[in-house]
Amino acid sequence: MPLLKTSFIRKAALFLVAAIFSLSAIAADFNQSQRLANRGNAIAQALLGAMYYNGDGVRQDYAKAAEWHEKAANQGNVDSQFIIGGMYYHGKGVRQDYAKAAEWHKKAANQGDSDAQYSLGGMYYHGEGVRQDYIKAAHWIEKAANKRNSGAQAMLGAIYYEGKGVRQNVAIAKEWFGKSCDNGLQAGCDSYRKLNQR
What we know:
By secondary structure, this protein is an all-alpha fold. It has helices at 2-22, 24-27, 30-38, 42-54, 62-74, 78-90, 98-110, 114-126, 134-145, 150-162, 170-182, 186-196. The longest helix is centred in the N-terminal third of the chain and has 21 residues, at 2-22. It is elongated, with a radius of gyration of 18 Å.
């Protein structure tokens, strides 16, 4: 699913940037970060995970990234929950496991992470790691769409257009495609235009 992959990469990159700015004292000293992470500091664990994932100041190592992100995720770090879910989804640094991906995305989704909500909705839609359930798919995707997640808005438009998990409604589909377009997703613009031409 290209949208899930794009969302995962964007989230990992945004997390790294945010971690560097908000934790510049920790990021400046890898050894200090490692000491804090070894003592159980979830923020330092997430930072190390991001550093290993991106090869920032260390040799890129997806297995170590997964190890540190999973430790932070187990302590409730929402960004690491989403990232480790994506790593399980794509098999980066860990054996590919859709069920574990769905489990981690659900934890992050329950904390309000829109990318995790969108990803989890997509997994329910396609039956990846969970039993296929269009109603649950629509539920999670709508949560993300209401937070201005443009990919989720376009997917929700498609769900309403197809009538999967919701009552089919072309007017609502068009509305969601329009919102997706307004938020910069070309696929949403294309779908909106196609519906206008009918």
